[in-house]
Amino acid sequence: MASPQPHPHPSAPTEPDAPATAAAAVAIGPGLESGGVSALAATAAAMAAAIGAAAGGGEAPAADHARTEQLLDDLLRVIDQYGRTLEQWRELEARYLQQIREKDEQIQRKTRLEELGAMAAGVAHEIRNPLGGIQLWASLLERDQEGSANVRRIAAKIGDAARHLNHVVQELLDFTHVPRPVFEPCSPAALARDAAALLAAEIAQRGARVRVEGDDTLSLRADPAMLRQVLLNLVSNAVQHSPAGGRVLVRLRREETPTPVCVLEVSDEGEGVPAEIRSQVFYPFFSRRPGGTGLGLAIVSRIVTAHAGAVTVGDAPGRGALFTVRLPWR
Ligand SMILES: Nc1ncnc2c1ncn2[C@@H]1O[C@H](COP(=O)(O)OP(=O)(O)OP(=O)(O)O)[C@@H](O)[C@H]1O
Ligand SMILES: [Mg+2]
Q: Model confidence over 25-77: pLDDT tens digits?
């Protein structure tokens, strides 16, 4: 955003005979106190009136000229200050609007996840029993030495498919449990390093590099096992979507505004997440990865929500995806 050029004569109001209006302009300061913008506008209007009075007053021409110059100087300072205040106000407004949008999306996602969770729990429960039966009959057929080899091979395939389905149902049931974090002090940077160590084989296989940037001594109250799971899912996704030799960066920082927040960023150098699917990637079973179940980010979202935080996806600088988790610093 472009900012107005400062006026080249900023020292004028400090002189002893500076007009009261200029002193008022200095007192307002660069902050955004309530009424700051309107106070500046009122000051500018008062100074413009004073300039008019000075120009039309009966003073000697030289003094008259100097006073007009002085007032003009002060007026430009006030206008400059007004511009900067307005710019700060716009930045603040844009930040708040973004936060409102994110919160709104978060609430919609939470509601939809709860509905999906309830439905999934019911369906999973219904599927489980017949699935157990299929597995049992398939294993009996597989072991039946009197049957043909072909039937035994087919029975083995049915058994494999049933086991896979059982695994999906189990994951679904796990997912439907609402996470209840047990808060204790933990180091997000150390947990990120833990997650990277647990993924060492996957990272090596991909030829990717994972780097954690963050202060290990920064401590946060969160559920360490859950936070590790968040990082595991995000780093694992980043590695899976990295090109060979691509770098995955985990960055941790503390932000103070408006209340302290722990910001965890995971970025990669892959293709990124296309804008049109960004709202869907956090829903269960949304997957565009061959072999993916589509539960990783749904779990991340649930855990982050249980910590009263938010997770968003965007573009990494240059190329790739950037996932940002924001957790209240407690
Ligand atoms: N870093 C990333 N870069 C590009 N796309 C991503 C990235 N992370 C996630 N995605 C997209 O979001 C989808 C959902 O991710 P999610 O982790 O929930 O599921 P998954 O990785 O497909 O399967 P699972 O994690 O259950 O094994 C992915 O299939 C992929 O399309
Ligand atoms: Mg995943």
A: 333 334 444 455 566 667 767 777 776 676 665 556 677 788 888 888 898 99
* CA nearest neighbour of 229 among 195, 202, 200, 197: 195
The rounded Å distance from CA 288 to ligand 2 centre is: 10
| Span from the CA of 34 to the centroid of ligand 2 (angstroms) | 46
300-310: b or e for each residue (b if 16 or more CB lie within 10 Å)? bbbbbbbbebb
Q: Is the CB of 297 under 6 A from ligand 1?
A: yes
- Return d(Cα 259, Cα 85) in angstroms, integer: 22
pLDDT confidence of residue 58: 54
- Which amino acid is it at 230? V
Q: How many residues does the chain have?
A: 330
Q: 287-291 — which CB contacts under 8 Å span 24+ positions?
A: 289/240, 289/241
- Tell me the Cα Rg of the chain: 31
Among 85, 80, 75, which residue's Cα sits nearest to residue 18?
75
Does residue 167's CB lie within 6 angstroms of at least one atom of ligand 1? no
Could you read off the pLDDT of 213-267 as tens digits, one per residue?
Answer: 988 888 999 999 999 999 999 999 999 999 999 999 999 999 987 789 999 999 9
Give the closest residue to 273 by CA, choosing from 229, 241, 295, 235. 241
Burial of 294 (0-12, 13-18, 19+ CB in 10 A): middle
Phi, psi of 329 (to 5 degrees): -85, 105
Q: Domain 184-328 is classified in which CATH homologous superfamily?
A: Histidine kinase-like ATPase, C-terminal domain (3.30.565.10)
- Ordered by start, the domain boundaries in the chain are 12-97, 108-176, 184-328
Residue 289 Cβ < 6 Å to ligand 1:
yes
Looking at ligand 1, which atom is closest to the CA of residue 323?
A: 1
Quick count: other Cβ atoms within 10 Å of Cβ 77? 23
- Predicted TM-score (pTM) of the model is 0.65
Rounded to the nearest whole angstrom, what is the distance from the C-alpha of residue 262 to the centroid of ligand 2?
Answer: 23
Q: What CA–CA distances, in Å, run from 302 to 112, 203, 285?
A: 11, 25, 14
